[in-house]
C-alpha cells in the first residue's frame, strides 16, 4: 500500500524525506544543497550547533530568488543548541539562527537536547580545563519548552518540537503542550519501537536522524571507545534485499524507516547519493522483508549518538539516555 510522502502539520506539511546538514563545511554544504534542491528535496534539517546555518540559508535563498511561492514549498528546520537551554536565552539563540538562515520565517524549531551547557558567548560547546563539558545543572526544560512555544507568537516560526528526549520527558512536555515533531536517532539497529508507539499514541510525527548509521560519527567514536559499529549499508540482510529490488542498501534502510512510520533526514554531500536517497517512493518492502529488517533491532544497545562525545553530560539531571 502506498505510504504518504508528507506528514500533515497544522496548515503545513513536512516532507518525509529531508536533507541532513550535520558535519558539512560551508562551501561543500552550499553545493550539496543545490544538488538536493534539483533532486527534489524540500525539507532541510539544520541546527545552531552545526555552525553552518548561514551556508544553508545562502543556498536556499538563491533557489527561492524572492519568490514567496518557492519559499512556501520549503520546510526549513533548525534547533536551539544545548547552550541556549534557558528560558531567557531562547529568543537570543533563535535570533542568531533566524538571521543566519535569512528567511522570512522558519518552519520548525526544535529543542536540540533536554540537557544544557553553560551559556558562554561565542562558544557553543564550552568545556572545563579537564575536557568535560561545562554542564548547566540549573536548566528548566519545561521553562525552555514554554519559551519555544512563545516564539510561535512572533510568526517567525510556524511549528516547534523536540529532539533527543525520552518517553518520560516527552510526556512531561505534552502536559504543557504537545510537541509538533519528535526528532530522534532511528535506524536499523536502533528502531525506537517504544518511542514510535508512544509518539503514535500522542499523535506526534517522528523524524529519524542518522538513518544510515552516521558513518562519520561511528568512525570518530570507534577511534575513542574501541567499540565496533557495524556498517548498516553492508549488513548481509540489507544487501540481499537491495539486490532483490535492484536498489542500493541506503535506499532499503530509508524505505524501512518510512514503512516503520517515520520520516528520515539522510545527509550526503555526494550528488549521486543525494539523488539516490530521495528516490525511494517507487518500490516497497514486503512484509517478509520488513520482518527480517525489524529483527535486527538492538534497542538501546544499537544507539550511536549517546552524547559520550560530550564528557560529563551524563550527569545532567535531564540526560535522557540512562539505561533502565
Ligand atoms: P546519516 O545520514 O545516517 O549518514 C551520513 C553518512 O552516510 C555520510 O557519511 C554520507 O557520506 C553517507 N551516505 C549518505 N548517503 C549514502 C548512500 N546513499 N550510500 C552510502 N553512503 C551514504 O548521518 P547523520 O548525518 O548523523 O544524520 C543525518 C542528519 O540527521 C544530520 O545530518 C542532521 O541533520 C540530523 N541529526 C540530528 C541529530 C540530533 O541530535 N537531533 C543528531 C544527528 C544527526 P557522503 O556525504 O559522502 O555521501
UniProtKB/TrEMBL annotation:
Signal peptide: none annotated. Gene3D superfamilies: NADP-dependent oxidoreductase domain. Residues 16-296 form the NADP-dependent oxidoreductase domain. InterPro entries: AKR, Aldo/ket_reductase_CS, NAD(P)_OxRdtase_dom_sf, NADP_OxRdtase_dom. PANTHER family: ALDO/KETO REDUCTASE (PTHR11732). It comes from the Eukaryota. This is NADP-dependent oxidoreductase domain-containing protein.
Amino acid at each position: 500500500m502506498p505510504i504518504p510522502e508528507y506528514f500533515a502539520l497544522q496548515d503545513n506539511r513536512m516532507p518525509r524525506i529531508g536533507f541532513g546538514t550535520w558535519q558539512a563545511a560551508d562551501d561543500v554544504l552550499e553545493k550539496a544543497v543545490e544538488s538536493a534542491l534539483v533532486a527534489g528535496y524540500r525539507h532541510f534539517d539544520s541546527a545552531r550547533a552545526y555552525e553552518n546555518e548561514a551556508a544553508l540559508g545562502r543556498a536556499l535563498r538563491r533557489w527561492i530568488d524572492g519568490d514567496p511561492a518557492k519559499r512556501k514549498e520549503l520546510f526549513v528546520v533548525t534547533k536551539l543548541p544545548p547552550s541556549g537551554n534557558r528560558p531567557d536565552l531562547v529568543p537570543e539563540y533563535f535570533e542568531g539562527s533566524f538571521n543566519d538562515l535569512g528567511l522570512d520565517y522558519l518552519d520548525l524549531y526544535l529543542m536540540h537536547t533536554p540537557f544544557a551547557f553553560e551559556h558562554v558567548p561565542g562558544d557553543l560547546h564550552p568545556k572545563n580545563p579537564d575536557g568535560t563539558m561545562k554542564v548547566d545543572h540549573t536548566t528548566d526544560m519545561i521553562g525552555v519548552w514554554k519559551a519555544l512555544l512563545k516564539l510561535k507568537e512572533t510568526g517567525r516560526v510556524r511549528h516547534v518540537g523536540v529532539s533527543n528526549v525520552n518517553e518520560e520527558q516527552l510526556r512531561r512536555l505534552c502536559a504543557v503542550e504537545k510537541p509538533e515533531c519528535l526528532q530522534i536517532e532511528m535506524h536499523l539497529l536502533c528502531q525506537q519501537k517504544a518511542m514510535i508507539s508512544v509518539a503514535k499514541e500522542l499523535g506526534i510525527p517522528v523524524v529519524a536522524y542518522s538513518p544510515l548509521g552516521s558513518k562519520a560519527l561511528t568512525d570518530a567514536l570507534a577511534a575513542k571507545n574501541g567499540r565496533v559499529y557495524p556498517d548498516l549499508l553492508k549488513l548481509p540482510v540489507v544487501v540481499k534485499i537491495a539486490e532483490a529490488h535492484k536498489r542500493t542498501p541506503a535506499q532499503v534502510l530509508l524505505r524501512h524507516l518510512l514503512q516503520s512510520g517515520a520520516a528520515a533526514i539522510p545527509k550526503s554531500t555526494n550528488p549521486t547519493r543525494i539523488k539516490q536517497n530521495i528516490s525511494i517512493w517507487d518500490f516497497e518492502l514486503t512484509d517478509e522483508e520488513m520482518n527480517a529488517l525489524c529483527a535486527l533491532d538492538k534497542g538501546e544497545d544499537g544507539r550511536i549518538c549517546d552524547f559520550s562525545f560530550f564528557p560529563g553530560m551524563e550527569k545532567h539531571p535531564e540526560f535522557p539516555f540512562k539505561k533502565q
